[in-house]
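Hey, can you fold this?
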Amino acid sequence: MTDTVICWFKRDLRLHDNAALARAAALGSVIPLYIVEPALWAQSDASGRQFDFLRESLIDLDADLQKHGARLVVRQGDAPDVLERLRRDHGVRHLVSHEETGNGWTYSRDRRVAEWARGQGVAWHELPQSGVVRRLAGRNGWAARREAFVRQPHVCVDGLRFASGIESDPVPDAQYLALDDPCPGRQAGGRKAGLRTLDGFLHVRGKDYRSAMS
């Protein structure tokens, strides 16, 4: 028997260089989870075009997981409630995620998740994924810690074992969440689309960037 571990995807919808997924894989059989939170999408800074981008990213992530014999588990609801159902149904003892740099709503939600984890004896492993350094009393030492983080080698995610038989909700569309602001020219979601956009900038669109930017 191995432990069942939730890898909670948030703003890190990729398998490549994903430290949270690598940590989860080292702890046991992984439930790759994304939570669609209606209350988040009801905030004033949410939009349909953002959700459309997210939806494409989830579909792309699920396709990559299928190459490893797994599917993305999507659940809708309030995060502590979703996590508690999975803990109760599948004996989860570990939750792994990246730290989220978001708005006040996500910060408050994460505090509630931390309270749930403490109350249920679930170890929540939060890993940084950017140069943001939390819980510093002052700026001294920030730059060195930031540079040390961004210079780390890519994380190799291997030895993946996935929990089986986990039911998933369908990925809703923006209209389901009462979000309707189509943007035909927006950037497409998903790692593959992101790599194409980066490649286009590095080799075509960014050719004169340094001199033309001003």
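Oh, and this one too while you're at it.
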Amino acid sequence: MALWKPLKSRSTVVTDTTTAEMMKYAFNTFFITKIVYANQIYDACEQTGANYKVIREALMDHPWGSKHHFKVFHKGGRGGGGHCFPKDIKAFSHWSNLEFFKEVDKLNDHYLHKTKKK
């Protein structure tokens, strides 16, 4: 499996194409949800005077947390930009027709447009 070695993957998943595609959406929608969550917590901190940086550090240090997607200001704005996150949350929310993902997409669009992030 030399293909996986450059990616430094901890594991290899061998599956069918449908599951592989759903796995891609599962990861990207989870990551964009974390970005939107971080932005919402940041906004709540701004309303209350709480220190988001301290909260972010605690989230990142917790053993059940992770070190990624809690940075609210990134590449000139807020929200999950780039090539994959916006298109994947839009496609998945449209395909699944689930309110949760529609709301994540709506909130992400709000942050992207508000800060003019591409």
